[in-house]
Amino acid sequence: MAKLKIECFDKKIKLRKIAKTVYKTLGQTARFKVELVFQDGEGITALNRNTRGVDSVTDVLSYPSLDGIKGKVLQPEDCPTELEGRYIFLGSIVLCEDKIRIQAEEYGHSEEEEREYLIVHGLLHLFGYDHMNEEDKKEMRELEKEIRFILRGVRE
Questions:
Q1: Each residue's pLDDT expressed in tens, for the chain with a length of 156 residues
Q2: Chain-centre distance of CA 29, in angstroms?
Q3: Which CATH architecture has domain 4-152?
Q4: Residue ranges of the domains in the chain?
Q5: Is the overall model pTM greater than 0.90, yes or no?
Q6: Closest alpha carbon to 115 in 143, 141, 130, 94
Q7: Which end of the chain offers a freer environment for a tag, N or C, measured as fewer CB atoms within 10 Å?
């Protein structure tokens, strides 16, 4: 059975529905693995500074292991250097617990909803989507809305 497996050893949170929804929405058929890590504000600021040269706190950082994969249906033979057993390793997502709390309050929804949105956002980055220009941003936001609608049944 093909799937997207999100491994998180920091917290016990429900990830299966998010993984399944992103996987199906993107039309994937292979097995994928993603690492999810949580940091506090200080920890994510250090990561942001050391990996992106940006000395500030952020809500989510994504570290994709594959390039040029946006919109592609991947197979193990397409990425032999990123195979972990029968899984293709897509990369890592780091979430900031402090920003999740602040943004949930700011946007008027639960921390669970904010965490869900940031995980979806991070997963899309790992699958090659970005928001560096207006066209890409629009495409990524539409996918986020579609996935969130499936997850929550709510239009944004």
A1: 469 999 998 888 889 999 999 999 999 999 999 999 999 999 999 999 999 999 999 999 999 999 999 999 999 988 888 888 889 999 999 999 999 999 999 999 999 999 999 999 999 999 999 999 999 999 999 999 999 999 987 544
A2: 18
A3: 3-Layer(aba) Sandwich (3.40)
A4: 4-152
A5: yes
A6: 94
A7: N
